[in-house]
Amino acid sequence: MRDMPASQLNPRIKNVWRINDAIWIVVAFLCCFLPFAVVAAVDPSEEWAGVVALIVAAVFAVLLVLLIVVLPPIRYARWRYELTPDYLDIARGIFWRKRFVIPFIRVQNTDTRQGPILRAFGLSSVTVATAAGEHEIPGLSNEEADVLRDRAAELARLAREDV
């Protein structure tokens, strides 16, 4: 089996993941918790609603600790990429590990993306598009993302010229 790619993401991506995950878990918690809390508050005889609200709150607390404290360092350690003259190699995943080797002859487009949270941390994502789909490398510094995007586009152009 091939060695793991050498390049890692910027360590600030862990905080971006924490913020993104916290936003989603809080929204999901509120959608699940509030209806039962309202039922329990409006009609105290409906004890089951209070019990369900407490269970939802406990699940929320466990998921919050898992997604904010435990998973980001592991996810960061498993995320690797490498740009060679012939292909882009991406490895990621904690439980379901995925490995993508994208030959530059197949690359149609390279792009950088930056949402508000990535922008706040000075990070960008590089997206490489093929006919089969898009592959994203998140959490690179803005300068590193620009260099990677331009280098990948140049290698894709050279690969098409060689054919």
From TrEMBL:
<dbReference type="InterPro" id="IPR005182">
    <property type="entry name" value="YdbS-like_PH"/>
</dbReference>
<keyword id="KW-0472">Membrane</keyword>
<protein>
    <submittedName>
        <fullName>PH domain-containing protein</fullName>
    </submittedName>
</protein>
<feature type="domain" description="YdbS-like PH">
    <location>
        <begin position="76"/>
        <end position="150"/>
    </location>
</feature>
<feature type="transmembrane region" description="Helical">
    <location>
        <begin position="48"/>
        <end position="71"/>
    </location>
</feature>
<dbReference type="Pfam" id="PF03703">
    <property type="entry name" value="bPH_2"/>
</dbReference>
<keyword id="KW-0812">Transmembrane</keyword>
<feature type="transmembrane region" description="Helical">
    <location>
        <begin position="21"/>
        <end position="42"/>
    </location>
</feature>
<keyword id="KW-1133">Transmembrane helix</keyword>
